[in-house]
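Q: What structure does this chain adopt?
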Amino acid sequence: PEGGWATLAATHRTGVGERQRAVLADGSVLQLDTATALSTRFDVQRRCVVLWSGAVLVDCGPDPGPDSNSPSPRPFVVRTAQGEIHTPGGRFVVQQRSGHTLVQVLQGWLQVQPKAAASPTRRLGPGQQWQFDAEGQGPLGAADGGAGAWADGLLVARDLPLAELVAALARYRHGWLRCDPAVAALRISGVFPLDDPERVLAAVQRTLPVRTQALTRWWVTLVPR
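A:
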C-alpha cells in the first residue's frame, strides 16, 4: 500500500473531487473518499480491503455465516502500508497518509496490528482514533467529531488551524492550494461543502483576515489580507 504502481491493480478508485459508494459481496459498504484506490480480497480466511491511497469509510457487519468454503466466521480486515485493522464488524474510517495510517472508530471495536512484528496490537473502541506508523508509534486520542463527514460531502472544522483546513480542502481540488505560514495558525470553525472548494475559499476570506493570491486558477495561496 501507500500508492505507487500497485494502485494500478485497484478494484475501486476515485479521482480528485470524486467519492464513490461500493457494496461488497458480504453486504459491507465502502465509501471511498477523493483520490482513493483500494482492492478487495475475500477468501476463506478473511474479508480483506487493501487501502493503497486515500481514505475509506467502512460499514461492515459480522460475516454472513460459514459455508462449505468458509468453515468459520471471517474477520473484516483493512490493510495499509503501516499495518492491519481487524474487526468482526463495525463502522470506522481509515486514511492512508504519508508514512502513517489514521484510523477513527465510529461504531464497534477494532484490533490494530502495526506492521513491525514486535509491535503489540492495540484495541480501539467507539470514539477513539490512532495515528500510527509501521512501528506502532503515534498519538492515540479522541476521534474528531467530524470523522467521516466527507462521505456526506462535508468538511467539519472545529477550531481547526487554517493550515489543516487548507490541506484537507486541497485533496478535493485540482492544482496547488497552500497556506502562507503567516496565517497558518489562524483558527476556524464551520461546516463546509466539499463539492464546491471555491465557495469554501470565499467563506474563509469572509471569516478570517486572509485573501487568495493566485498565479493561475490552479495555483492559489491564502495570504494575509
